[in-house]
Structures
1.
Amino acid sequence: MTQVVRFKMEHLDQIKLREREREGTAKIPHFRKVCEVYERHGGAYTMLSPEGIVCIEGVSPIWPGVAVAWSLTSDLIFKYPKSYYKATKQFMAAIIEDWKIHRLQATTYADDAVACNWLRHLGFEREGVMRSYGPDRADHIMFAKVN
């Protein structure tokens, strides 16, 4: 059984991030400071399970009507795929409506077929490759969900 709760900073210390995400977030300057904003102002949630944190997901506004969806995951997403999918869909629908978002975008590593497929299942469309985009200079693919 999973439970969705509002994001708290302590969740960053509790989640067992998958290796690539752990390495990627370590290269983002002021990552924890940015996350403090989500704790204070919302825009992020945490999915809990009896075994630990499944994911932390959020949305970062860029300008009115446009935002970036992001996700930090543990290997527990593979144990709870239906709960993960349902929570993600509900969260995105609520944010799109509440924040009046007409474009929600997300990126993922170009070589991560599972993440690319995941974004397609969530209704995102592939837009193109962003060369040397990641904090590790890896290529990423931009996906967008436009209403």
2.
Amino acid sequence: MIDHYAVNKFLYDTDRNPEFVQRYIDDPEGYVDWYFAERMSRLLDNESEASDVRTPDEATRTALATYDFATLYGEGAHPFILWTLMLPVIEAKLASGEFETPTAPDGARLENRAPMAYYRERILPSGRPYFRY
């Protein structure tokens, strides 16, 4: 089971900083290692204080480093925060050819169709989020 606090803090903190998002896209393993070593224990918007936070387990780190959002979603990561961070990641990976372009669903904005289809296809087996807090 994932560490919900660590995952949601990682998603939220990374998503609000465009430089962090780009670093995560460019080097996910390096970024995850850096984040948990250097940033995880910091209180957001307060660089002078630290919190007593456990380092997440290897399964959580691996899911984040491999963009395994289906596992994160299925294990109860906050679905909105997860989507807002994965959207630029999926867009970049589709554009570079690293991710295969899926069949786009009707009804979505044109620019979001391929990323939404890629995301939806992978989380669909999990159904609705189940928060095990």
3.
Amino acid sequence: MNDDAEAAAFFARRDAVVMPSSVPAGVRIELMRARLMTGKSARTDEWMRMLNDRYDECVTTLAGERVAFETIFRTSEVDGTEWIYHLAVYGEGGGVLDENSGSLDADHAAFGRECKERGWEILDPQLFIATPLVRAAMIRAATDPFGDTG
């Protein structure tokens, strides 16, 4: 399968995940994980350092990706297998890196191709809970990221 077909298949699978009734209309939540390649721990450290060092650029990309919230976790199993987990809240049609937009998304994607095994395991969301203030902010950020509707 070529990269375009693989990406299309992933997004079709991701977008087919049914949101629980607690997720506001127009909003999607996702938790995915990917195994890191053997021997790529130090390079993954560099990847995460790059994202942290370029935090302001990361924040700038969120509105265009319709992302309200995004975080990455990392864990190691007893046998040394490492995983990264990606948690995001985003609007319908969002949550997609724009590798053609410039340096950050392209660099982020390049690190991903180098450090993690291809593909993501998509976990099924079961519940979304947030205080009214946080819920309203996430809905707004995911569905109206540029403040176009008032």
4.
Amino acid sequence: MRKSIRIILFVTIFVVLFLLLNQATIRAVVYNNRGLNYCNKGKYDRALQNLNKSIELDSSFAKTYNNRGFTYYNKGEYDRSIQDYNKSIKLDPAFAIAYNNRGLTYTNKGEYDLAIQDYDKAIELDPTLVAAYINRGLVCKNKGEYDRAIQDYNKAIELSPNLYVTYNNRGNAYRLKGEYDRAIQDYDKAIELSPENAEIYNNNRKLAEELQRKEKQ
């Protein structure tokens, strides 16, 4: 009889602990999701409040550290952003998006070689991650490696042919190479996909100015 009571008590304690732990995990997910929504709305301080609470409740979610890292990135706090991406990758070494996002942070710090390493790893883990090709292409363009940039933009367009930013960026690479006809084609396509985007018109203006200078030479 006493043995049966001990067994019942043990099972009851186990079930209660299991439910409490799961409740904490569920709450952590809710705070994470709410934090991500605030981040997407540009309310970064509110986002951090929720993401911090999520980590307090359950510190084992790689996605929460990634989301907090992205929030710090948007606030311009790049070192704290990288710390969170490091933690996210440590928890999930196959998390391609965390590598891509850390690469984006390195890009904004001007640390291009580290950025490319992260984009390479993100693409290795997920060859369909369009953002990694676009971001790596931008770094290659900034380094003056226009052919490599164009290769990445070509792959991004192959994977997702309706993103204006890819055509705009490839147009920039062609313009800097002096391949003006191809640049015009890409800017035209970018405008077709995003007619109200001022950046594309600004790039078109730069191209027109370069063509005028070339004609005067």
